[in-house]
Design a protein that fits this description.
Blueprint lengths: L8 H12 L10 H12 L1 H9 L1 E5 L11 H10 L4 E5 L23 H10 L6 E5 L8 H4 L5 E4 L4 H14 L4 E5 L12 E6 L2 E5 L13 H19 L6
Parallel strand pairs: 1-2, 1-4, 2-3, 4-5, 5-7
Antiparallel strand pairs: 6-7
Length: about 240
């Protein structure tokens, strides 16, 4: 079955209007208040490390060559106060993303990078968020990720996953790479794990469950894997390298 959009032009226009007229979150809170709340939960020693971290989110969720877990990972990292995020995706939000992704009706039709940045700013408007609305290729990996300490990946398409993993390990061997696979359907969450594949390469998921009719990519299990990725990234930021 292939989804066919059926929105009227009036609905499309209303979505655009809602996206363009969101309140400026920086008028709702101060940097000092957000930091004070994070310090209350995390302590200064922990929060200072989170503040200084640079994490690339490779893909912001999607149906084709884009990943499915990383928008949820980005939300988790923003909530704990990771200071610098780099969002990378070439695609736009569509209705089929809403069953598992951190998007809303107002985001439909927007570039995923722009929509996710907007939504993350509603959590913490003072997070430093850089976006690149591009497709990741062998050629641009070395420059695209040059400023990040950690790269978060969750491509659906095996060929794209292999391309990114190989390109990072070959061209950026000093970077930490957290990858994911096997998150579809509604099998037990207890099958999901995080393991260390090599010195700088970590893998989250059950490693085998692909989408099939009746058990495609669904929010609960995608969220479990996304939070495995976010937790592993948090551990790396805080100096814990074991999976």
């Amino acid at each position: 079955m292939t989804f066919e959009p059926s929105a009227s032009q009036a609905q499309i226009d209303a979505r655009q209007h809602a996206f363009d007229n969101q309140p400026d979150p920086a008028t709702l809170v101060s940097r000092e208040e957000i930091r004070a709340a994070l310090l209350d939960r995390h302590t200064a020693a922990t929060q200072d490390k989170l503040d200084a971290a640079h994490v690339a989110i490779c893909g912001c969720g999607g149906p084709r060559a884009a990943p499915c877990a990383n928008a949820s990972s980005a939300v988790a990292l923003t909530r704990i106060g990771v200071g610098h995020l780099h969002l990378i995706d070439f695609d736009r939000v569509d209705m089929t993303n809403l069953n598992r992704q951190q998007y809303f009706l107002k985001d439909l039709g927007q570039y995923k990078t722009e929509a996710l940045r907007s939504n993350l700013r509603q959590i913490n408007p003072f997070t430093d968020i850089t976006i690149d609305t591009v497709k990741v290729t062998d050629e641009n990996v070395p420059t695209l990720f040059e400023n990040e300490d950690i790269i978060c990946e969750a491509f659906d398409v095996p060929e794209n996953k292999t391309m990114l993993v190989n390109a990072v390990l070959e061209n950026l061997p000093g970077k930490k790479l957290v990858s994911a696979s096997g998150m579809a359907g509604f099998r037990s969450s207890n099958l999901v794990s995080t393991r260390r594949v090599s010195k700088n390469f970590y893998f989250c998921g059950d490693g085998e469950t692909a989408p099939v009719p009746g058990a495609g990519l669904m929010a609960p299990r995608v969220g479990v894997v996304a939070c495995h990725e976010a937790n592993m990234i948090t551990r790396l930021i805080l100096g814990e390298e074991d999976a």
